[in-house]
Design goal:
single chain; alpha/beta; Spo0b-associated Gtp-binding Protein, Chain: A; Rossmann fold; 2 domains; six-stranded mixed sheet; five-stranded mixed sheet; 8 helices; binds guanosine-5'-triphosphate; binds magnesium ion; magnesium ion binding; GTP1_OBG_dom_sf
Length: 386
Amino acid sequence: MELLRCALGIRGLLVWRPVSRPAFSTSCAACSKNRRLRQKRVISEKKLSRYFVDHRRVRVVGGQGGGGSQSFHSEPRKIFGGPDGGNGGDGGHVILKADQQVKSLSSVLPFYQGFHGERGGSKNCYGANGACVYVKVPVGTLVKEDGVVVADLTQHGEEYVAAYGGAGGKGNRFFLSNEKRAPTLFTPGEPGQERILHLELKTTAHAGLVGLPNAGKSSLLRALSNAKPAVAAYPFTTLNPHVGIVRYEDYEQVAVADIPGLIRGAHQNRGLGLAFLRHIERCCFLLYVVDLSVSQPWIQLQDLKYELEQYKKGLSTRPCVVIGNKIDLAESRINLPLLKEQISDRVIALSALTGDNLEELILHLKELYDTYVKVEQSQGQSPVKW
Ligand SMILES: Nc1nc2c(ncn2[C@@H]2O[C@H](COP(=O)(O)OP(=O)(O)OP(=O)(O)O)[C@@H](O)[C@H]2O)c(=O)[nH]1
Ligand SMILES: [Mg+2]
């Protein structure tokens, strides 16, 4: 044994090389090719849009209740043991649960069925209840049935029972009475509730960036927060709402949503229209983004307010600020005083591209947020927190 250990020791010394090894072998060309570091693929905005779903039609059916059982106690030397058929278990519910981790309705399937309750058994055994099926939906999901809103899941963890499971049947033990000492009656379980629901997602952000295509909304969100929506010099670059967070020193966070561009007639579903007007509806205050380099920029503002008002009365009168973007361009500096003359709202002129005067917007955003929190608290409601 000693000899063997010595031999191994010597052998170990022989193979020992005190040089740092490369991370992987490059001696074999084929191996080194296969071990190339994998890079995460960048998904384009167009591809992402396939995964973002803000509408779903779902059929939900509660679990069937388990049937009751019919049986009589049987024991040696006991002539009449009496009925001992147990009740069936209740069917499981289908429950919609708001989850902050879920960002779109793409993971929601078209059909959900609750688990069935188990049958009752002899010896007074009750059947087990069917388990509930939880469907995770994003925060801000609106549940509609026949066009009527039945639930609004605005808080993380909020639940809504979409379909109740059926009640379990009764075993013959249940029907025992003084008049009937040996009942043979037992009942089947009830079927679960069946409903067809329409789920609709509304982005719940504090501030919404509202503007015509190419106004610079996505560029502004990029400058304000760490969100990375696509930016390009063609209209309708943004196809889905993006939410970015602006963080303040007092640990308050303001969520800003970049909403796809609106055009004239959006309320009649022109452009990307109607689908995205509903995201604006949820925002507590609005940031109108106007391209100052275009002549008569106040017309953009009039169009935007008109579209919002047509979609929902009072939407254009929400607390707001007008952002005059692209102030770095020469035409913008000419148009800015003209815009200020034409409108009564506060105008913040800035450049999302160069970051000029961005601080004024960040400070004003906090003022709008603080006012919103105070108003909500005075009304006894809890403000939306991110
Ligand atoms: N010069 C200048 N160009 C800007 C500024 N902000 C945005 N742009 C440019 O304007 C073009 C449109 O910007 P986006 O941020 O994609 O505009 P958008 O409003 O999000 O457009 P949609 O998503 O199509 O609605 C891009 O080419 C930007 O580089 C700015 O402050 N100054
Ligand atoms: Mg955009």
